[in-house]
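Hello, quick one for you while I still have it in my head. No rush at all, and the record is pasted right below.
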Amino acid sequence: MYGVVAVDGSTESEPAMTTAQTVLVTGAFGLVGSSVVDELVSRGHNVVATDLGSPANRKAALKRPGAQTWWADLTDFADVEKLLTSVAPQSIIHLAAVIPPLCYARPDLAHRVNVGATENLVRAASAMPVPPRFVQASSVAVYGPRNPHRETELLTAQTPRRPADVYGTQKAAAEDIVRSSGLDWVILRLGGVLTAELGATINPDAVFFEASLPADGRIQTVDVRDVATAFVNACSIEEEPAVYLIGGDDSHRLRQSDIASATSAAIGLSGGFPAGRPGDPGNDPSWFATDWMDTESSQRVLAFQRHSFADLMADTRQAAGWRRHVVRPTSRLARAILARRSPYRGYPGSYADPWGVVAAKWGPAASSE
């Protein structure tokens, strides 16, 4: 039996993994995938990490010698069938995905990965002599835009899905494939995943997109290490197939602007991010697809919440180390540069319009499917 130390210092038990499993992890070298692989290896499991064989992924694989690496194209059924036949996993943790904002720029590619790859994996898994447990990564994007002025209740697994963009629609379709498969499945809907590691790639498009979101939109973040714990524990829980919401503890219930201000301060750029626009209280569709969650049942079953938001920021400060003092004098310059690159520079109105920004930058088909 494994244990974790809760934020208040008490000990909570995690679901037991008394027997080592062979676990296949897709999207194994992304932000979440890397943490999941590390967690599985640390618990003594036989891990097969699969991803595209890009130079960046091959470099990342060298840092994880405890896992077997298998390069594969999950959009090719023959590749998937060969992979599953050779590995014969007892559990599959399916993380491979094309996420915002790339899914808006490449919606066709996103569909092949987010929906088609899921379909291939489920089909191949269902044909195995002993079908594996299928742990699917989903997103709160399936709930669609959430106006906090009108929708004040917390999200639950039972909250109706109303996806309104490419990503939410594709994730809902992937969920449906998994739920109708007949496999032993678990679906985890993720909130805003954050990491304390400064080595994570900063994507200019992602910064631009995040700056378009309503500054007062509600979002529940979660430390990537806790996400990894949830996925690994999902491989062994003795529960009926179910959907679980994965967000941090109550300290992670934030407004969108809180994230930029807290993280910039943690790395030494206090005040380096310009203030964003608020959302329109009278326009429900103009809000983004994030909100606060009721994670009580998820925590009870998966026992994953170990890092508060304050813990995460403290770890970010520690990771920044001496660099915080070097970048501190550049805060004003960073703020000026980001203000010039703001999605709302010269944009009409006074409220945030994320879907208008998406359509203007990536085309009208980008925000809906």
Remarks:
- Residues 1-13 have pLDDT under 50 and may be disordered.
- The radius of gyration is 20 Å.
